[in-house]
Amino acid sequence: MCLFASPRGGSTWLLETLSSRCDFVPINEPLFQGKLRVDGIMPSFTTGRPYLKDLNFWFHQPIDESYNLDREKEIFRKIFSGRHLHPDLTRYSSISELKTAEKFLVKFCYGNLMLPWIVKNFNVAAIFLIRHPCAVIASQLSVKGAFDHIINYPGFTLPVFFNAEYFDQFDSILSKSVRPEEILAAIWSITIKHVIDHPKNNTEWHTLRYEDLLNDPFHELKKIENRYPEFGWSKNTSHNYVLPSKSTLDKNLGSHLLDGTQETKWKDQLTHDQIKNIFSIVKDFGIEIYEP
Fold this sequence. Notes:
The protein is an alpha/beta fold. It has helices at about 10-20, 70-80, 95-100, 115-120, 135-140, 150, 170-175, 180-195, 210-215, 215-225, 255-260, 265-270, 270-285; strands at about 1-5, 25-30, 105-110, 125-130, 205-210. It contains 13 helices and five strands.
């Protein structure tokens, strides 16, 4: 099973919740290439995944469904078969769990632009998790150091990389995305739009909103389990859905979840101007699934 989401989009929480209902071995971020940057410089490969070094991939790499890419396919075959088990990818699992693993849950936060290609070319069950852009961006900006390149280098300049021309269609919007929240809103919009506008959205993969999962987790999880019964889900319903994930930075998250304020806490984390700037970009992309 593959789980696709935006960085800081709630994917770790969903991964941990699904793993509590099935004996998954999680594979974490096989496309991670270090801190995101849009200052015309490619990933350095000094951090991230070494097997990506020769592929000329950008951070959010688009792959068209029509492409027949033997080298890239082989890398994904190794990922999905558990043959790329670097400690950074398997930090949630022990050696004994890896040795006996039969089910893998692969979490992608940089794979949205290749989701349809992956589903077309590999026998995987796929989940696409969407979260409010302001919540995602507020969380991204709160991660100390993670988005330094976005904060310190205003503007949106892309380097030369495989299939970079995919972004040409957005030039008019990207050229005016100069503030950190605008740049991150553009990235959110491009990577979300690619999936939700696809004619096979929510048919070839399962799409759900973080907010729906937050408000009725049992109902949303049952929809996933009913759609993919082949994984043999546990009948144990004792999981505590309000537990914060391992990746949370909010010391008050437990209270937010219990009090019902987790969904809207971004309104206190972002300024009025930041919210306005984010939705100006989101509106330019024609995405209307969320409101300010």
